[in-house]
Design a protein that fits this description.
Number of helices: 17
Order of helices and strands: HHHHHEEEEHHHHHHEEEHHEEEHEEHHH
Shape: globular
Protein name: DUF2252 domain-containing protein
Structural class: alpha+beta
Number of domains: 2
Strand order of the largest sheet: 7-8-9-10-12-11
Oligomer: single chain
Helix content: 40-55%
Organism: Flavobacterium panici
Largest sheet: 6 strands, antiparallel
Number of strands: 12
Length: 466
């Protein structure tokens, strides 16, 4: 019988027990939740209409931006999947649950991984989106990530045999690297990262390696704030302003500009207070000059997101990105207690727990209207995956890399010995996850087609192409 996560008793483990004892405890869970049970996906009879879920998750968003959200989601079943974390969360809640909880990404799909610069300016490969992070069953992240490869593979016109293999490599890489982490100390795990240049060198495709090496070189040389300043701003008298590029970048309207700026400065002040003292001192050398709303991603469209421009007395810029922090889509489906009343703090702390190195300006804030936000630098030497150019072998390599990065992130808050004990050293778990991924890809296509029908019927508004 498949149990909801909310009905499953969370399993606790003695951190003082030996690695062997913890491994054996993980292995014992297989009797209650065998590997083969993870290959199942059957839509529940009481499954909520996916369109109703989309409409509910749009409540509280900027209404004028919703047509852009649905326009982006209708581009393909993969784009739909990226914006439908709430739908899959409801489905995962009715799949088998090992009872092993840890910090989840919550929206774990292949476009939420990539390269970025650490505070020491080293380029690493890691997860880079944590809007939905929460404590929950570890297998949910693995299944969503694996399913994203099956769905993306279909979008790229690969055969389902290959798509199943992509998903398999996610779970297999997760297994192999989790076993490696189980042999390390907690401190060694905390120090571990994945060097982006070394990761690219592992690939066999010389053409794609050369392409990514050029991107790494460009990212390493990229002086983000100065180049963005030249591209995104104009001089308005003595003050630099962010250029409007509607409907994707624009200034809020309807209120007196001075009132809006005063509100923004208050939100910024609260953000500064969330930072460690050394970063507070650093940012005290800058003042806010402007801010604008910026439409980002797929799942975030319609939430209040944007960029703020800070300037020093001598004219050096810093761009910060702010994103509205809403309740995690996982929260209603897990038994884990909510640790933070401030949703921005939830995201920041989840990110710091899962990432090998987080942005030095990562912090949280709120306004006086009950909205929460988190803030980070805008584009700090980021290297995003370019799916459109990937051949079959490239996507396999990328699946292995994402599985590795997820294992490292989970090993920080979870117990890698217990997880390795449950997964074991054979292929049964990877086989099950790969079968689940194809089944869920089928479900995702059905849901996508329902969304297209809802758009035709006028239930969901869409914008003209932009």
């Amino acid at each position: 019988m498949i149990e909801k996560a909310a009905d499953k008793t969370e399993i606790s483990f003695d951190p003082l027990a030996s690695k062997t004892e913890r491994y054996e405890k993980g292995a014992a869970i297989r009797k209650a939740v065998p590997h083969a049970s993870h290959q199942e996906y059957i839509a529940a009879k009481d499954r909520e209409d996916p369109i109703d879920i989309l409409i509910k998750t749009s409540i509280g968003r900027i209404e004028s931006l919703l047509p852009i959200r649905y326009r982006r989601m209708m581009e393909s079943p993969f784009a739909f999947f990226r914006g439908a974390a709430a739908i899959m969360a409801a489905d995962l809640a009715k799949t088998p649950n090992t009872g092993i909880d840890l910090q989840l990404c919550g929206d774990c799909h292949l476009m939420n991984f990539g390269g970025f610069a650490t505070p020491e300016r080293k380029l690493v490969f890691d997860i880079n989106d944590f809007d939905e992070t929460f404590q929950g069953p570890w297998e949910w992240d693995v299944k969503r990530l694996a399913a994203s490869f099956a769905i993306a593979g279909r979008w790229l016109k690969f055969a389902d045999k290959s798509n199943k293999e992509f998903a398999w490599h996610v779970a297999d890489s997760y297994k192999r690297h989790m076993l490696d982490y189980s042999k390390l100390s907690a401190l060694q795990i905390w120090y571990a990262d994945i060097d982006l240049a070394e990761l690219i060198e592992l690939g066999k495709d010389e053409e794609i390696k050369e392409f990514h090496q050029k991107r790494i070189k460009k990212a390493a040389e990229y002086t983000t704030h100065e180049k963005e300043f030249a591209k995104m701003t104009y001089q308005d008298g003595v003050r630099a302003r962010i250029k409007d590029e509607p409907p994707l970048i624009f200034h809020s309207s309807g209120n007196d500009e001075k009132i809006i700026m005063k509100e923004a400065e208050l939100v910024h002040k609260r953000y500064i207070e969330s930072l460690p003292e050394d970063k507070q001192i650093l940012l005290s050398r800058y003042s806010m000059h402007d801010f604008a709303i910026k439409v980002v991603g797929v799942g975030s469209v319609g939430t209040l997101c944007g960029i703020s421009l800070l300037m020093s007395a001598t004219g050096e810029p810093i761009f910060l990105q702010f994103k509205e922090a809403r309740q995690s889509v996982l929260e209603q489906y897990v038994k884990s207690k909510k640790k933070y009343n401030q949703e921005g703090e939830r995201i920041v702390m989840g990110q710091k727990l899962m990432q090998s190195a987080s942005d030095i300006f990562l912090g949280w804030t709120n306004d006086d209207r009950g909205r929460f936000f988190y803030i980070r630098q805008l584009r700090d030497a980021k290297v995003k995956p370019v799916l459109e150019i990937m051949k079959e072998e490239n996507l396999k390599d990328y699946a292995k890399a994402c599985g590795w990065a997820l294992a490292r992130a989970h090993a920080r808050s979870g117990d890698p010995s217990v997880l390795s004990g449950y997964i074991g050293d054979n292929n049964e778990f990877a086989n099950a996850v790969s079968k689940f991924s194809l089944l869920y890809a089928d479900q995702n296509e059905l849901d996508y087609n329902k969304m297209i029908q809802a758009i035709k019927e006028g239930r969901l508004p869409v914008s003209a192409e932009i």
